[in-house]
Amino acid sequence: MTDPVPPRLATLRFLERVQLRDLERTRRWIADEERREAERQRGAARPAPPDWLLELGLNKDSPPVQVHVGDCWNAGKRTRGIGRDDALRALADGVKACSACRPDSELGFTDG
Predict the structure, then answer these.
(1) How do 96-97 and 79-82 pair as beta strands?
(2) pLDDT in tens, 37-95
(3) 6: domain range?
(4) Are 84 and 77 in contact (CB under 8 A)?
(5) Between residues 9 and 44, which one has the greater pLDDT?
(6) Contact of 79 with 55, CB cutoff 8 Å
(7) pLDDT at site 37
(8) Is 112 within a domain?
(9) Which residues does residue 68 pair with via DSSP β-bridges, in sequence order?
(10) Shared domain check, 68 and 95
């Protein structure tokens, strides 16, 4: 038979396991924070959004769906940046203005 582990040694081994678990958790927290900081720095290097967005249809043959202000929260994923003249032209051609960001008001566009 093996000799039983003295109680003090068993307690110290338990303490060691707890501390290793805590150390691993702390290292995960550090790695997570380093990843978030790197993402923040990459985000700071992003270019400014375009002044106007044209939301495109589902495929290349579909007409554009809406015109948005460049930082509109309601813009879909299929958008491309456009200039002021292109935004005005799209509105004049009948492309709908986003009801959330109101690019027609921002552009001073009146359809009459």
Answers:
(1) unpaired
(2) 998 888 777 777 789 999 998 887 888 999 999 889 988 888 999 999 999 999 999 99
(3) 1-46
(4) no
(5) 9
(6) yes
(7) 93
(8) no
(9) 53
(10) yes
